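Issue: ligand-bound run for 5-amino-5-deoxy-1-O-phosphono-D-mannitol - logging full I/O for the record.

Environment: standard queue, default settings, no custom constraints.

Inputs:
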Amino acid sequence: MCGIVCYVGDKQAKGILIEGLKQLEYRGYDSAGIAIQNGNAIQFDRAVGRISELERKISDRAMQGKSGIAHTRWATHGEPTEANAHPHRDRDERVFVIHNGIIENYRLLKKRLETKGYSFRSETDTEVIAHLIAIYFHGDLCEAVRKTMIQLEGTFGIAVIHRDVPGKIVVARRGSPLVIGVGENCHLAASDVSAMVRHTNKVVHLLDNELAILSAEDFSISTVQATPIERSTEIVDWQAEDAELNGFPHFMLKEIFEQPETVRNAIRGRLDYAEGIPRLGGIAPVWDSLKQCRHIVIVACGTSYYAGYVGRYIFEKLTDIDVSVELASEFRYRRINFAPNTFVIALSQSGETADTLAAIREAKRKGASLLGVVNVVGSSIAREAGAGVYNHAGPEIGVASTKIFTSQLTILSLLALLLGRHHSLSLTEGVEAIRAIDALPGQISKVLSLAHSIEAIAEKYYLKSNWLFLGRKYNYPIAMEGALKLKEISYIHAEGYAAGEMKHGPIALVNPEMPTVAIAPKDSVYEKMVSNIQEIKSRRGPVIVVVNQGDEDIKEIADDVIEIPGTLEFLNPILTVIPLQLLAYYCARLLHRDIDKPRNLAKSVTVE
Ligand code: M6R
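Outputs:
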């Protein structure tokens, strides 16, 4: 969603901020803006549309200055217009503010300000912040921000500059991510480390209800109650080139092709062949209670939810634990009684998804223990969970999640295997599973070598406007994930169904114009999938099938066949999902969609 980037240092800020905004483009946005400070002067500009539009607008403006703030906006209050784009300013144009999040009581605050004679230039919730800071400012910008924070309800990550405080930026957060970057002769702040990795890999995370004042030389953090905070820097393992296309036309394709490596990263140093057991250091703090755990509730949204759904089948296969999987966005409306020894596992690429964060807070309140499976180190969910496993998959930039999905499935398999070995699984079963997991990166490379034939299948069907995806058991969530991938980047309508449900309704849709993608590896439900495929063929529906190599029987009935290597049944989804990612990608490409930034979507959904 919205993105923040700030710089104060010994270099001109304009280019650094525009570059930083470009690194945040993937989050999804509809307008952008910048403010640069030079002594007591602040220049600013904003533009609707892409950052290139803002860049074009300011290209012939000098905008000298070594500190500044910049923002990408994803509209929540008011349309994407220049007037609603950030930065917002106070009446006298002394305070400039950028903001991520939602101020829930802004109407009340706005009304109060209007009765005092203030007028508003935008329809946003953010503008009240600029007015309040100006009112509370009597020479100390941190104090003015503190007093303002006390007035605000809702979520925010903000960055503020003031004409009378040159060379300083104040940032503050409650509920929206903000990270400080410690560079050479400079400090940065951003909503996302990818905006800063070109300048530094040393970061400090700001926590809720904290603020920081940055200058070129130093920074200091304090709480909203003015208590100073000492926090040491962390090193991020993301490289600047992780955020480059490296010859791929889109980040989504690059990330699909990174999967042998990201799955390898998920298992690196974690497989113990001798004991037939995975080693997961991040769960050490909770291991004693985790081994006693009898119930697991997995919470997540979107693609992470589908990973959790597959996870349920995997835990059921490998352990004796009861597992349920819940949409984080619905979780707080449920009246769930956690049995003793319940663990809640939150899955999230970004670690900032508002619904998932709210779900784990709710679970904590009700006494459940927490585990996070998160990609972004130091993110809110990772911190809140306290224990868990990092994906170590590098930044995922394409809005459509791909490499994190297979990484999540790998980690869930390791977690289930670990618990299973402490329940009933034998050493032989453990070693067999470890061996199969270890083989996955090589097998993923084999699936990726089919990219051209999958592109040819996409060419055949990309103009069809309705698709059905079918799978059973482990591959039922894969059918839903395949449909989600196609929908979000190609805007083709698609539905993912449990194949057994087909006769209960969706079969009415089957006709020669609607392709069905059936996921049918040789597993315990293979024969039933074959029957479903035959039922579709008898109604003249075209069928694309994902099968195991050498499946000659299915070739006779299906229209198009994608043959992938075989593995243990519970690991199949890590391989079967990849052709569906590629199919979605190629359909979207043939339709000339904006694949990495599909319409209306944001990479990280930080508002509820
Ligand atoms: O960062 P998270 O994993 O918590 O994000 C969850 C969903 O917002 C995300 O998976 C979304 O569904 C993607 N666009 C799917 O490709």
